[in-house]
Design goal:
This protein has 1158 residues and is an alpha+beta fold. It is built from 30 helices and 43 strands.
Length: 1158
């Protein structure tokens, strides 16, 4: 847990001897560590490995050093950063933060002295022992200094280093010249170790050159690190994600579980749960599916966790969680975490059954936070004092007008935030009434609003506190002024998120339920009294009515004490049925993001379509059309090649030249087999003659591909096309032979075309370079899809091996398949989770032949975790069946084992092979939490997004759609009254047919939109299906007009407003068929704005709804087709009357009708 000796300005975990996620340039120099030679060598190897890891900070090292020189204080000539040995007694937060900022790691027992008082003499002196000096010299050798400053090294011995220290102060005095010399130190820090204590003793002595030359550099060092660069801001964002996940998915859920089950759990135990979750590899792996950086080794760590409830509240991060059980009245929860040593903080106050006093203070807390944010937004610069004063003025205004808040200012904390980053709390950037330092863009602040004190007692005489903290980044808005961006907004501080209701006397969703029940019970009681006076009830019915009244009276009491129905379920149900302010804010953010992406997409389309080579796809189409054109068919090169030994009155098949020789006017005319459409042998009625009919391809006939006849040939009126020939003979033997010969030729021609089409995209693959070392990655006992050889029940089982330039799968029948690395477009590893297989799938750039004749773009290697067979036993299983339990246990063990084997194979391939031979390749994994169902081909399957593609791999044929070449996404059939919608992907190559996934549940729409927005993909939506064949044909016909009209924004930018249907409540009843027709007609008329003036120009781009998509919608459309306005109005009135006669309406009107009859 936390360190009890912390100062108020120190994070709760203090300084750890081993800080996770940071790099330490230390061997075993601590006196507490072992001193054997073996351990010393291991420590040196570890430090050397850390040096290699630090090579990536060279560029930022020079950039940050120059920032220090550019913001150098006028009074100081040098600043000394002293780090001693690693110890719990040391207090060196700012020094270690500076080392992390400059070099990306900690350097114990090292003194860094920076000279910046003179632009011509900018120096960095590094003082340490011989081993560390050698390491740092190797690290910083080759850093591109470009003469900006120089680096010098001095070796310290720890006993008497006065000579080295004299050099430092001599240099500082030389730079100062006639001015007073001053060397800045971090005076409040405490050091452990001979070197650090020797330097501080030298500086404090009156007999050394340091006498009267020491100043305080704390404020200077803070000013260097307070403004974050882009790399630091990204680290802060990632740290905020980790903090929010710990708060929302671990701490709050644990607290809710305790409240839900009415159990006892101590504050310390809850904090231990959070810290254990942060070290849980399975949980981190699950989070890493959506946030991959959380899976980095030793990148994240917990700084502190704190839960406070009951009688005592201290709004500081250095407070220790106590052993008291969680109190359900008011709970203050805080989490501080870091990513790569960059810290963020989040605090939320959870209130159970809030009273008016508590609601008033919590509303004040939220409004004060808004005031702080608004005071910064839109300003070019302001001081920390101005921010604090704005909060104080707001609290004063509320205290004078709102009940219960008269003492609010006295309960307010002394500051409302501070700078956060590599230091959890920078004491020189406090937002309080005394700090005149300026807030500037690039800073990261921990905004904090808290109320606690002796006046914070609710109506039930229970003490409580209110505290909300969020980490924020001060960015620069479009107008060049400051803008606050909350990094920890992933968990809202809104009242709907943090307030729980157990007692229905408090306002909430359940209050309305109780009031309605009480109202109904009172009505029944009055009615029973009236009926009793009239003596209309029998004694038996009176008894029943009496029991009913008693049940009604006690219904509120039962509802009040039934916790299981009132805690989390009611609050979550409210969130599902009513759009909260957070949902609206998220929807607005998504739309703002889309508007920005769409504007960029217009420019991208213009640049892509107008640059040279945009019609490269047309050349391929021309080549394909040329191959199909009949002008390329040649039976014979010259007339002399026609055989002369054939009778000129006889039909002859020349199989050698794929030609039919036809006698016409005594001359043999050759027809290539490709010119023949079909051949038939009609039955002659008399039976005397045998007939044969030959049909030829000709322009204008049905089912004829127009690319067989070029436009230039069709325009020539001199050409004559032969459509069919009929021959009849008494001796039918020759005609039957011709019929069989032509059929055989056609069969051979189709086979050749099929083979040519199969081999068209097949490219020659390089030969596999084998790794003969036995340590190569190998995965055994795999099945493969598609199957090798002939299909059958015996599937090929084999071994997959990773070699230098590709994989080789070898089956038990000695068949093998090679997959070259450079031909892999996507490599996907899908572990077994709620399915039957664990698999590796490879999507290829160019197809390969599997089994010698199957062309495929996808190949999959998998192992089934359980048998697909069913138990046909007739005996009935009991509720507790040991055999079944053992089977399930064995199945779980098998799944765990296979997942581990596949995951280890993937790791070995990436680290041992791909890192050396294919550095651009990496295995992708499906994000199962983002999965949805849909129909990409013919089957309805589970579809999962990956980093670079979306996949459905369980069923075969597998579906893999790469996202790299996606231009936009269009959602079709999006309407509040439909249960599903379609999603169409339009490729950047407009000659490609768009890909569609249909019948996706509407519940997945918002999630898919958010995912596409994170990928930067533009999406549109509309209420109808689009005819993409006509749309793409229209775009390809005139790309210049498409660009001039605004690209896709011109087509879909004015369609039905995105999100307009999302706000509709599922329980709305004011929906009529006429309204639906109006919406459909308006949406359909605005789908296409770039056509001609023809009023029907847009109709060719819309597709009618499928009848099975939504029966109610389709019937309404069919019935209203062709009706006049008067008929439609009359029909709507009839429907209204039917609704008024519905059972619910009649129930409500019955009592009134009885009263009238009396």
């Amino acid at each position: 847990m936390t360190d009890p000796t912390l100062s108020p300005t120190t994070p709760a975990n203090g300084r750890r001897s081993e800080v996770s996620g940071s790099v330490k340039l230390e061997g075993s120099s601590s006196p507490k560590s072992a001193s054997s030679n073996q351990q010393q060598q291991q420590a040196e190897k570890k430090a050397a490995g850390s040096i290699i890891a630090l090579y990536g900070v060279r560029e930022s090292f020079v950039r940050r050093m120059m920032r220090m020189f550019e913001h150098w204080p006028e009074k100081q000539q040098a600043v000394a950063l002293v780090a001693g040995e690693l110890s719990d007694d040391a207090v060196e937060q700012k020094t270690l933060a500076m080392q992390q900022w400059l070099l990306g790691g900690e350097l114990p027992e090292t003194i860094m002295v920076i000279f910046g008082g003179d632009e011509k003499r900018r120096l960095l002196w590094i003082l340490s022992d011989q081993r560390r000096v050698d390491m740092l010299e190797r690290l910083l050798t080759g850093v591109p200094l470009d003469g900006k400053f120089t680096i010098q090294y001095e070796v310290l011995h720890g006993n008497n280093d006065t000579t080295v220290y004299d050099k430092i102060f001599s240099t500082a005095k030389a730079i100062a010249g006639d001015r007073k010399c001053q060397v800045g130190l971090l005076k409040k820090e405490k050091h452990v170790g001979k070197m650090a204590k020797g330097f501080t003793k030298y500086c404090s002595s009156t007999e050394t050159m340091a006498h009267d030359c020491i100043g305080n550099a704390t404020a200077t060092v803070s000013s260097w690190m307070v403004v974050k660069d882009a790399e630091e801001v990204e680290n802060m964002r990632r740290s905020a994600v980790f903090s929010t996940l710990l708060m929302k998915q671990v701490m709050v859920r644990d607290v809710e579980s305790v409240i839900e089950n009415d159990t006892k759990k101590t504050h310390e135990a809850i904090c231990d749960t959070v810290e254990s979750a942060a070290e849980n590899k399975d949980m981190l792996a699950r989070w890493a599916k959506k946030f991959p950086y959380l899976g980095e080794d030793k990148a994240v760590d917990v700084i502190y966790t704190l839960i406070q409830s009951g009688k005592e509240f201290k709004l500081r991060p250095d407070v220790q969680p106590n052993q008291e059980a969680l109190d359900f009245s008011c709970i203050v929860a805080s989490v501080g975490a870091k990513y790569r040593e960059y810290s963020t903080n989040i605090t939320r106050t959870l209130i159970v059954d809030p009273t008016k006093h508590q609601r008033a203070y919590y509303n004040l807390c939220l409004s004060t936070m808004d005031t702080i944010i608004k005071s910064i937004n839109g300003k070019e610069s302001l001081t920390c004092q101005e921010v604090y004063n704005a909060a104080v003025e707001h609290i004063k205004a509320k205290a004078s007008t709102v009940e219960f808040l008269h003492d609010a200012l006295s309960q307010f904390q002394t500051d409302c935030g501070y700078s956060i980053g590599l230091e959890f709390r920078d004491g020189h950037m406090l937002l309080n009434a005394k700090n005149h330092k300026h807030i500037t863009p690039g800073m990261c602040l921990n905004l904090s609003v808290g109320f606690a004190g002796d006046k914070m007692v609710n109506e039930k005489k229970k003490p409580y506190a209110v505290w909300v903290c969020d980490s924020a980044y001060i960015s620069t808005g479009p107008d060049g002024k400051m803008k606050v961006e909350l990094l920890t907004s992933g968990m809202s501080s809104g009242k709907d998120e943090v307030m729980y209701y157990l007692d229905t006397d408090q306002p909430g969703e359940n209050e309305d339920v109780v009031k309605s029940e009480r109202k109904e019970s009172s009505k029944k009681e009055k009615k029973s009294k009236k009926e009793k006076k009239q003596h209309d009830k029998t004694p038996d019915r009176s008894k029943k009515e009496k029991r009913r009244r008693e049940d009604a009276k006690s219904s509120s009491r039962r509802h009040k004490h039934k916790k299981d129905d009132l805690i989390i379920e009611s609050r979550l149900r409210t969130r599902r049925n009513r759009a909260t302010a957070e949902d609206e804010e998220e929807r607005k953010r998504l739309m703002d993001q889309q508007y920005e992406l769409r504007a960029r997409k217009v420019e991208e389309c213009r640049a892509r379509l107008l640059r040279s080579g945009e019609d490269a796809g047309d050349a391929d189409a021309d080549a394909t059309a040329k191959n199909k054109c009949l002008d390329t068919c040649k039976s014979y090169s010259t007339p002399d090649d026609i055989p002369h030994d054939i009778r000129t009155t006889k039909l002859t098949v020349d199989a050698k030249h794929d030609t039919l020789l036809v006698p016409i006017n005594g001359t043999l005319v050759p027809f290539h087999i490709r010119t023949i459409k079909n051949i038939s042998k009609p039955n002659d009625e008399g039976g005397k003659y045998t007939s044969i009919r030959i049909n030829f391809h000709a322009p204008g006939t049905s089912f004829v591909q127009q690319d067989m006849f070029p436009e230039s040939n069709r325009s020539k009126q001199t050409l004559v096309y032969l459509k069919e020939l009929n021959y009849r003979a008494e001796d039918g033997r020759n005609l039957q032979a011709v019929f069989r010969g032509l059929k055989e030729l056609q069969k051979r021609q189709r086979t050749r075309e099929l083979e040519a089409n199969t081999m068209k995209d097949i490219k020659e693959q390089p030969s596999l370079k084998l790794i003969k070392d036995r340590s190569r990655p190998v995965l055994r006992d795999l099945n493969v899809k598609p199957q090798l050889g002939s299909t059958g029940r015996n599937r090929a089982v084999g071994t997959l091996e990773a070699h230098q330039n590709g994989f080789r799968f070898t089956s038990s029948r000695a068949e093998h398949v090679d997959i070259i690395y450079r031909n892999i477009a996507h490599a996907i590893f899908q572990p077994c989770e709620n399915d039957q297989t664990v698999l590796l799938h490879f999507n290829l750039k160019d197809p390969i032949l599997v089994g010698g004749k199957k062309k495929t773009y996808d190949i999959q290697f998998y192992t089934e975790t359980r048998s697909a067979g069913d138990d046909l036993g007739t005996r009935r299983r009991a509720g507790y069946d040991p055999d079944e339990i053992m089977d399930e246990q064995r199945e779980r063990e098998m799944i765990t084992k296979l997942n581990k084997l596949f995951r280890e194979f993937v790791r070995q391939v990436e680290e041992q092979v791909w890192s050396q031979y294919a550095p651009n390749l990496e295995f992708d994994m499906p994000y199962r939490e983002l999965g949805f169902t849909g129909t990409p081909n013919k089957a309805h399957v589970d579809i999962f997004p990956c980093r670079d593609c979306i996949v459905a791999l369980t069923d075969w044929p597998a579906y893999v759609l790469s996202l790299r070449n996606i231009d936009i996404v269009y959602f079709e059939r999006v309407s509040f009254n439909l249960r599903n919608f379609d999603m169409t992907f339009i490729f950047k190559d407009y000659t490609q047919t768009p890909a569609r996934i249909s019948i996706i549940p509407t519940e997945s729409l918002d999630q898919i939109k958010q995912w596409l927005g994170e990928l930067g993909i533009v999406w549109y939506q509309g209420p109808t299906n689009m005819n993409w064949t006509n749309i793409m044909k229209e775009i390809n016909k005139n790309k210049q007009a498409f660009i001039d009209n605004g690209a896709w924004e011109g087509w879909f930018g004015e369609s039905v407003e995105e999100g307009s249907d999302d706000g509709m409540d599922e329980g709305d009843e004011e929906y009529t068929e006429s309204e639906d027709s109006d919406v459909e007609s308006e949406a359909g008329g605005s789908e296409y704005k770039g056509g001609g003036s023809d009023s029907d120009s847009g109709s060719s781009f819309l597709v009618d709804e499928d009848s099975d998509s939504d029966s109610e919608f389709s019937l309404a459309s069919d019935e209203s087709e062709g009706l006049s306005w008067d008929e439609l109005e009359k029909k709507a009135a009839n429907e209204d009357r039917k609704r008024r006669r519905s059972p619910e309406s009649s129930e409500k009107k019955r009592p009134a009708s009885k009263k009238k009859r009396r």
